[in-house]
Amino acid sequence: MSKSDSNRNDKPDNPNNPNNPDELPEFEELRQKFRDRIDELDERILAALNERAQCAIDVGIVKKKHGQRLFDPKREERVLRRLVEINGGPLANEAVLRLFERIIDESRRVERTEVYDKNDLK
User: Fold this and answer.
1) DSSP state string for 33-95
2) Widest CA span of the chain, in angstroms?
3) Is 117 helix (H, G, I), strand (E, B) or coil?
4) How far is CA 24 from CA 9, 15, 28, 75, 82, in A?
5) What pLDDT, in 10s, does the model give residues 100-114?
6) pTM of the model
7) Which one-letter DSSP state was computed for residue 1?
8) How far, in Å, CA of 21 to CA of 30, rounded?
9) 10 Å Cβ neighbour count for 26?
10) Domain ranges of the chain
11) Any idea which architecture 12-116 has in CATH?
């Protein structure tokens, strides 16, 4: 065997390498266990996001009924500050801010389209 053949067998992506993690049954099982857990968490996150969107619609109905504006920057600032304060990681505070800014934007969008932009013909 040439030196180059020997080096090729040492690379982790070579299926003939005994150290290739894809060839280890316990690796596959463990990886699948974590992927299944992520799938479960994704489903819970999606359900929570839809529940949050429905709450935004409900809040929008109350705000519209009482003549309040859709956008409340002070409230959004308090929400973001509170989330950063309770963040225990491993997500960085900046990541939490980016994620929740997007969630708040989408909540405001659904509130606007479902409450403020709808005709009052109901």
Assistant:
1) HHHHHHHHHHHHHHHHHHHHHHHHHHHHHHHHHTT--S--HHHHHHHHHHHHHH--SSS-HHH
2) 82
3) coil
4) 16, 11, 7, 51, 44
5) 999 999 999 999 999
6) 0.73
7) -
8) 11
9) 8
10) 12-116
11) Up-down Bundle (1.20)
